[in-house]
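Lay summary. Proteins are chains of building blocks that fold into shapes, and those shapes determine what they do. In this project we predict the shape from the chain. Here is one chain we studied, written as its sequence of building blocks.
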Amino acid sequence: MSRQRRYWSRNELALRVPRPLWWPALSITFLCLFTLFAPAGFITGMNLYFLLLAGIGWLATRQPLDATLMRAVAPFVVAIVLGLVAGIGADRYLYFKDAWYYSNPAVIIAVGFVLGRLLNDVQRGLRAFVVGGTLVALYHLIPFAIYPDLLLRQATQIRGLVGTGYYATSLVVILLVGWWGRWRSALGLSPALASLALLLCSTSTVLSFSRTMAMVVVLGGLAMGGFFARREWLRVGLFIAALMLGLGALQATVDTDSVQAKRSFIGKLARSAEELSVQDYTTRLDINANWRGYETSRGLDSWAQAGLAKQVFGQGFGAQVDLGLFQNLSRDSRAAVRFIPIFHNGYVYLLVKTGVVGVLLYLGALVWMYHIGRRTAGGRSDDPATLQGRALQGCVVVLAVSTWVVAGAFNKFDMFSFLMLIGFLLAARTPGTRRAP
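And here is the predicted shape, written in a compact code that computers can read:
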């Protein structure tokens, strides 16, 4: 009797197809959904846990570090070192909080990248983002199903009762519109399920009454249509001109000073440019009405008065900006503050903490990631590589614009799904590093 063989030959191992991993896709869905419930620190801990597992696997394979991943996170690492050194001696809590804010986008991009490399299946990964965002939409819409009379209230009242919405749903709208007609082949979703997901996420996005989210959908949709694939500087200039013209026309037809306008979505949309206008307002009424422009002005003043060295390298982590008055920034009427460590404008946040160098590092990272997507964005619309490149472009453009109004990459939760998709698409659009035989 011949003894049964208990090992694989080298040729058999070479021909053996490994079983695809299921947990990376599940992790994408889990992380997109759990940003609704879990504290920010818990999500960061989960992300670091995934990176720890990936690091252990990398040490076991003895392969060199992935050059694409290192290139993506390097600007954030340099900025973190800069902020840590410049901020020595600052309040310890604010010091480490800023370090966390800076490291968070790099960690999320790295997690998306690692999960993309492990999954090695773009279709399953994109489907995971769609499923996660759709579950988020269901969560957001539950109050409207239980209390339909909410729909009769004004926009500001709805946002105060139900919440301001979740950007993961707008990402699903962008993906499903971008892959329109290819839902089964590109996303592994039946037309019925994809249509249901699009309906739920579109409804959630509309009921968020968010101007920024509306802009995110517009920018993402333009990117998926090839708007940024070529001659983008000319097209962006025309788009900005058309946007400003539209806002100007809207402002001319709406009484933005009326109480009704301040409570409605149309009225807030008409006031968008005014709210973002950088001015050092003098009256409490103007400051409250145009808070984002006022805090940006105070941040720029702080940077301008900091001295040349701190203008270039920043005031460091833990630095705060004097508002010039006590302002209530929470629902607790007794919690008024005069000094603030963070801003709605992420570029001012960068400028104060890490100076011109920090802003240039961040912009350099965005430009590089955008360029990775642009390499294939100009191809045929039915080419998977083309759509993946355009999706990467769209995510980067969304990040660049949202950093101006809602802190973008430095927002604890809002841009989580976009950051993770950026990492995932970077893994999809770049070759992996292999150890020489």
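What the prediction tells us: The mean pLDDT is 85.
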